[in-house]
Design a protein that fits this description.
Blueprint lengths: L3 H14 L9 E2 L5 E2 L2 H17 L5 H32 L11 H33 L2 E4 L6 H15 L6 E3 L13 E9 L8 E7 L7 E4 L6 E5 H8 L7 E13 L13 H11 L5 E7 L4 H10 L7 E4 L30 H4 L4 H7 L2 E5 L5 H12 L3 E8 L7 H11 L3 E6 L7 H14 L2 E4 L5 E2 L3 E8 L2 E9 L11 E8 L2 H16 L11 E2 L4 H17 L5 E6 L5 H13 L2 E6 L16 E6 L4 E2 L2 E5 L6 E5 L5 H5 L1 E2 L1 E4 L3 H16 L4 E4 L6 E2 L10 H17 L14
Parallel strand pairs: 3-8, 10-11, 13-14, 14-15, 16-27, 19-24, 21-22, 22-23
Antiparallel strand pairs: 1-2, 4-6, 5-6, 5-9, 7-8, 9-10, 12-19, 13-17, 17-18, 18-19, 20-28, 21-25, 23-29, 25-26, 26-28, 29-30
């Protein structure tokens, strides 16, 4: 573990050189409460990702991956959020009136912040990453750096692999403009006629075929040296062959990102699934949401491209020499494992992975897994056991995002073959997973699974599964409730909680959720234990906050701890402000968007907010209310955003088992103690690293791993399980 004093000093120096404060963007709600617009707050979060890329204590290849994560995040942001603002701007509409800000101002602020961050991105890459790569014998070469052998290799590679894909096109003024594919890379070439050099310069576009070929190509290299060239620079080296009548004066990279929204006029009539399919087909040809270009491009050429592709000033943003930097995910590592994070293999959850009787173990007590620290094998076994167990009659699951290759989905198909009734609710409107979910839906239907699809106007975001099993003369139900998706791949990098239980208070209400999803009929009985979106989620959360306010006003101890991905819902934020004003101690751990502004006198002095960005993506949601000493603890699929609390079916579930409550308290306490990867969220949005004055470095994710490792080792030494089916008649 790194020396925290040295690390803090490094970061203090960084802050002097780079401050992306958005403090002057703090607005007021209609009720006069401070508020940061959600997209401005999101940009602050994405800068926390960029901070990891410039942190010298992070292994080199991991820093490169954080550049990729930052770029991937930003690309999606422009395809979704910026596209929405641009559409509002085009039609002259304002955003919500209560925030007193229009789309034009938001777009200006976004562009200003992103341009600064992109400059920082380029500086990190050019001045830190490339020199550090050289230090380890890895050289990222440009075309002028190549020796003769490498030139021959590049030229042969271009002719053998790239020539069919580069698509050179002359750009002629006032002619039909060529179509730019979404997120495709192009070089714009500045040309001079060899026979008539006095003629005005001409321009052309050449495609960089990174959608067909690797972005990084290894070159012939001397011993103890690794030379690499980007596909972009192979095109630059070879572009003269495509325009034999011209001198190549210069080349500049460009990329157009297109609106990713699925525009469905009416979700409530007609065939919603067919409308989604038709809209998906149009996604790749949607309007521009961002045109990026090499900041070295001359203004004359930029003006030509703006006119040629019918771009407006708010569509255009500067970047460095290279775009689509999410390709850094595939940067070659040459077997240098020491430049990556040391492996942290997922730990077995012995009580469920090693038990001879899976169902007895869940009947005996509740079980909590915390992935990726724990293996996901317990979840997979839940379905595989159910598929092959002759006593299981029904399996139900909600699918929001799922792995392309999924043992869980295979188990569901196997269960149908074994004669079980299998029901899957598929949320087709899960953004960027729509096509994959449609494919899975068709595959499951062909296997005989009873598939239900999206509701109009609402997304189903709950993470639930239910198994019904005949035990003796009665039927018993088992459920798995989670904060994360049934996705074997993301379970390796997303930090989530999952609860296995046979507690009748919970399984009966989970069954009620599935009944609603399958019949679209409001349950006759309400929810007394679960908090369910579209039913009681928002109102019950408000009551819980109100109770803490009442306790504080009565001079009693009152506390709220929330761990969330995002906090944006205005009415919930105002509730938290009122809690702070009443004297409630509010501690928030929020990874992403935080529209609440802590530390404002008269509003939020009693609210602290930290954000942790590290090797795993913090995805779990946990809500803890002191509740007069009768502590209430919940895990949830829902963030506190308008969409989650008002327009989704979400499930928040209580934790009744005391041994699990103790674990969650410990996990949250570790996060609140982080002084290595935690950033302080404050009114100035400076993303300063949290320093508590301690000489002991506490990195929450590492501490959590070793906490669970100790627990796993103790569990592996526990006694033998009782014989199978003990108590099955009870």
């Amino acid at each position: 573990m790194s020396n925290i004093v040295e690390k803090t000093e490094i970061r203090r120096n960084e802050k002097a050189n780079s401050n992306f404060s958005t403090g002057h963007l703090v607005m007021q709600t209609g009720n006069g409460f401070p508020y940061i617009q959600r997209d401005i707050s999101w940009l602050s979060f994405n800068y926390r990702v960029l901070q990891e890329a410039k942190d010298p204590t992070v292994p080199l290849f991991e820093r490169i991956k954080f550049l990729a994560i930052y770029s991937s995040n930003l690309d999606e942001f422009f395809r979704v959020r910026m596209a929405n603002h641009r559409n509002l701007l085009r039609v002259g509409k304002k955003t919500k009136k209560e925030l007193h800000i229009d789309s034009k101002q938001i777009v200006k602020d976004i562009q200003r912040i992103v341009n600064k961050q992109q400059e920082e991105f380029s500086r990190i890459f050019e001045e830190e990453i490339i020199p550090e790569l050289k230090h380890h014998g890895i050289h990222l070469l440009r075309r002028l750096d190549l020796n003769e052998e490498q030139k021959e290799f590049v030229e042969a590679y271009f002719k053998d692999h790239m020539l069919p894909f580069v698509q050179p096109v002359l750009l002629v003024k006032n002619k039909i403009r060529p179509f730019l594919n979404n997120a495709a890379l192009y070089l714009t070439v500045l040309l001079q006629d060899k026979e008539a050099p006095e003629k005005p310069h001409q321009y052309a576009n050449v495609k960089i075929p990174s959608d067909h070929l690797p972005r990084f190509i290894e070159l012939p290299s001397a011993a103890n040296r690794h030379d690499v060239i980007m596909l972009d620079d192979i095109v630059r080296h070879s572009v003269s062959w495509m325009f034999p009548g011209y001198h190549i004066l210069d080349t500049f990279s460009i990329k157009l990102t297109r609106d990713a929204e699925l525009y469905i006029d009416d979700e409530f009539s007609g065939d919603l699934i067919q409308k989604i399919k038709e809209s998906l087909a149009k996604r790749q040809v949607g309007p521009a949401s961002r045109f990026v270009y090499d900041r070295e491009m001359p203004n004359e050429l930029l003006g030509f491209l703006k006119e040629a592709f019918d771009l407006e000033k708010y569509d255009i943003l500067q970047e460095g020499r290279y775009h689509n930097n999410f390709d850094f995910f595939k940067f070659p590592e040459f077997g240098m494992a020491h430049l990556s994070n040391p492996p942290l293999p997922s730990l077995p959850y012995h009580p469920l992975e090693d038990t001879a009787d899976f169902w007895y173990s869940i009947r005996e007590r509740d079980h909590l897994i915390h992935v990726p620290y724990h293996s996901y094998e317990s979840v997979v076994r839940f379905f595989e056991e159910a598929a092959r167990d002759p006593k299981v009659t029904h399996i139900k699951i909600i699918q929001y995002r799922v792995a392309r290759k999924s043992r869980i989905m295979q188990a569901l198909q196997d269960a149908v073959k074994a004669g079980k009734q299998v029901s899957v609710f598929i949320e087709v409107k899960a953004r960027f997973d729509e096509e994959a979910n449609l494919e899975w839906g068709e595959k499951l239907e062909q296997a005989g699974v009873n598939v239900h699809y999206s509701f109009p106007g609402v997304k189903v975001h709950s993470k639930l599964a239910l198994v019904r099993r005949i035990e003796g003369r009665k039927a018993r139900m088992y459920t798995y409730l989670s904060t994360g998706n049934f996705h074997e791949d993301t379970a390796k990098v997303y930090s989530d909680f999952g609860l296995f239980t046979a507690d009748e208070r919970l399984v009966n209400e989970v069954a009620r959720v599935f009944s609603f999803l399958e019949t679209v009929k409001v349950p006759q009985q309400g929810f007394q234990h679960l908090l369910v979106g579209q039913f009681n989620l928002r109102t019950e959360l408000e009551k819980l906050i109100d109770f803490e306010i009442e306790q504080a006003l009565a001079g009693k101890r009152a506390e709220i701890i929330l761990k969330l991905n995002s906090l944006q819902d205005q009415s919930m934020i105002e509730k938290l402000y009122k809690a702070s004003q009443a004297g409630v101690k509010v501690q928030l751990v929020i990874r992403g968007i935080c529209s609440l502004v802590p530390g404002i006198e008269g509003f939020s002095e009693n609210i602290s907010v930290t954000s942790i960005v590290d090797r795993y993506l913090e995805h779990a949601r946990a809500f803890i209310f002191y509740h007069g000493g009768k502590e209430l603890m919940y895990l949830s699929s829902a963030d506190w955003m308008v969409r989650n609390l008002s327009y989704r079916v979400e499930t928040t579930f209580p934790i009744y088992s005391e041994h699990i409550r103790n674990q969650i308290r410990d996990f949250i306490a570790i996060q609140l103690s982080d002084n290595v990867k935690a950033r302080v969220i404050d009114k100035d949005s400076t993303n300063e690293y949290r320093a508590d004055g301690s000489d002991l470095a506490i990195r929450a994710q590492m501490e959590t791993y070793y906490y669970i490792k100790r627990q796993s080792e103790m569990e592996s030494h526990e006694g033998e399980e009782p014989e199978a089916e003990v108590g099955a008649e009870s």
